[in-house]
Amino acid sequence: MPFGGGNKCGRCQKTVYFAEDVQCEGQSWHKSCFQCMVCKKSLDSTTVAVHVDEIYCKSCYGKKYGPKGYGFGGGAGTLSTDRGEHLGIKHEAPAAHQPTNNPNDSKFAQNLPGSDVCPRCSKTVYAAEKVIAGGNSWHKACFRCAKCGKGLESTTVADKDGEIYCKACYGKNFGPKGFGFGQGAGALAYAQ
C-alpha cells in the first residue's frame, strides 16, 4: 500500500480506502468508478469483462472485442443496427456479390484432400470454414445464392450445374412455369 492510506483507483487514480475498495484483476477501484468504460453501467463480479487495464460490461466487451459476422448477433431473435462505431470499430464496405464462373459442371468432381478450392472466389477452403453443397466445397462467406446473393443454409440451398441458389431463385429460374405456379397463394404470374 503506497503512502496515503490505500491503492490507486484504476479509473480516477485517486486513493481507494478500505470501505470503498472493489478488487478486480489485482487492481483497486472505487465503487463509483467500477463501471463500464463505454456505457458507464455499474459493474459487479458477474457482469465485468476485463481487457488489459480496461473494464467493460459483457455487452460492450462483446461488441468491441468479441467475434464478428454472421451468426454472432445480439441474442435470439434480435436485430441490432449498432455497428460499434462509438467503440472505435471501423468497418470496410462488403465486397460486391460475384456469381460463380464455375467451369466444372460435374456434380461428382473429385478434389484431392487438402486441395479444396471454392468455386466462387477460387481460394483454398480449409476444414474450419468448409460448407459442402452442389458437389463443391464453399467458404461460409461464399455460400450465397448466385442470383440474389442471399446467405444459404443446408435447408435453403438448391443446386444446378455446380452452382447454388436459394429456393426462391431456383424456383423462379428453373422451376415450372405457367398458371398455378405463381409466387404465392392466389398469385398470378406470367412466364417470360
What descriptors fit this protein?
192 residues; two-stranded antiparallel ribbon; 2 helices; mainly beta; 10 strands; single chain; 19% strand
Question: What does this entry look like structurally?
Answer:
There is one protein chain. With 192 residues, the chain is mainly beta. It contains two helices and ten strands; from the N terminus they run ββββββαββββα. The strands form five sheets. It has a two-stranded antiparallel sheet. Strands 3-4 form a two-stranded antiparallel sheet. A two-stranded antiparallel ribbon has the order 5-6. A hairpin with a 6-residue loop joins strand 1 and strand 2. The radius of gyration is 26 Å and the shape is elongated. About 3% of the residues have low confidence.
Taking the sheet with the most strands, its summary is: 2 strands, antiparallel
Number of helices: 2
Shape: elongated
H and E order: EEEEEEHEEEEH
End-to-end Cα distance, whole Å, is 83 Å
Report the mean per-residue pLDDT as an integer. 75
Helical residue percent band: under 10%
How are the strands of the largest sheet arranged? Answer: 1-2
Number of strands: 10
Structural class per helix/strand content? mainly beta
Uncertain segments = 107-111
Output the radius of gyration.
26 Å
Strand % is 15-25%
